[in-house]
Design a protein that fits this description.
The chain is mainly α. It has one domain (about 10-60). The chain is built from three helices and no strands. The protein has helices at about 10-20, 25-45, 45-60. The longest helix has 18 residues, at about 25-45.
Amino acid sequence: MPLYIRDKEVDGLATKLQREINAASKTEAVRIALLHELERNHAGKPLRDRIAVLQEKYAALGHPIPTST
């Protein structure tokens, strides 16, 4: 699906980034920028918060069914 940027400032920023990183397209430049921002955001969260999310997911799985041996 194509990416449509209607805001002239955002379009200009995407074009500038595309040139600076030598991306094949503006869409590729935006994809890279979004991935970097997600990584930066994730890295900024304290470890205890990231662990808490994993613990919640683990708890939602439920307890394993014990097997008799």
